[in-house]
Amino acid sequence: MEKKQKRLASLPIILNFIVFVGLLVFAVWLVFRDQDINDIIKVLLSANPFFLLLCIACMVGYFSMEAWNVMTLLRSFGEKISFFKSLRFTLIGFFFCSVTPGASGGQPLEIYYMSKEKISTANATLAILIQTCGIQFAVTGIGLICAIFGNDFLSGSVAILFAIGLMINTFALFILLLSIFFTGGLRRFLRRFFGFLWRHGFKKSEVWLVKAEGGLDKYMEGSRYVREHKKEFWQSILKVVGQMTLFDLIPFFIYLSFGLHEMNVFEFFAMQSILFVSTCILPIPGAVGVSEQVFLTLYGAAFGETVLSSAVLLHRGISFYLFVILSMFVVLITMIVNSRRRIKEDKK
Question: Who has greater pLDDT, 200 or 320?
């Protein structure tokens, strides 16, 4: 019976991965449907490997910054965790974020695997909450700056996607900060809001209130921690800003790898921020297909028709697909190790 339950629990993950692969095939067709593959290979081979290595270094730095941040937070809660163990959890979270709609599976499964390593679920949840708050802060702040100084890149469908993404991320940041700093006020607001719905015929609002208050309870520890460790909290936020900065530099290094120099790093930083904000809220695993299309639209003038397809292949290959594959192996190895550990414990 237990084995059957585990198989049923893993079924959504398998289905999500199948959908992810299907979207990947569609993305490849979308980018290369009108291209000569031989020309693309020639352009790829002409890229300077030094700058491509810098792109990979940025991604390694991106994951390392997150792992360092989560490790520091967990240690401040009294948990014993090494940097490499934290890095493993970070990659596990990245994998499940990549293959589930709206990145919905990453955080719960990252916390789940932490609990398997004897880390308190409450502490793991709090560390991930603060990391998430930092990401929302960085994405929203950088997005607002780019909207002001990089609005030349906003037009058509990209502008619409960006506006929706920025509004959703701003709202999410507002709720997170409200949940952390004004837990009592938010609780009163929720009770009034759902009470209003109940009085106007939404009888399920009472159930929704119970679920909302249950979710709010986990933020109370976050509120207490932030009030007592304000310096550590803002240091954590700065680490995430640094993490996102490394990620946003990748297209510029790809640009330099082709020997192009007409545009500056700030323009690329703005375009990448716009790309991230425009696609991060989409209910599509890894925003596969849409990210490639937005890249083609945003970076068309920068790379030119000859290089553009190769550029999107390098960008998504290095910043996403390469690490989806690497993190998949991390997940598989972790599952095998946990399974063997469980078998040993059952024999005792």
Answer: 320
CB atoms within 10 A of CB 12: 11
Alpha-carbon span 143 to 162, nearest angstrom: 9
Report for 97-101, 125-129, 161-165, 187-191: range of highest mean pLDDT = 125-129
Q: In terms of Cα–Cα distance, which of 236, 285, 275, 280 is closest to 254?
A: 275
DSSP state for residue 153 in the 8-state scheme: G
Helices (H), 202-288: 205-228, 230-248, 250-257, 265-279
* Token reading at 138: 């960085």
| pLDDT at 230 > cutoff 50 | yes
Residue spans per domain, the chain: 37-152+235-347
pLDDT exceeds cutoff 70 at 58:
yes
Residue with tokens 């119970």: 210
Q: Are 81 and 314 in contact (CB under 8 A)?
A: no
Report the candidate in 123, 122, 48, 42 with the shortest Cα–Cα distance to residue 79: 123
Euclidean distance between CA atoms 202 and 119, whole angstroms: 40
Q: Which of 233, 243, 217 is nearest to 73 (CA)?
A: 233
Give Rg (Cα) of the chain: 22
Question: How much is the pLDDT for 118?
Answer: 83
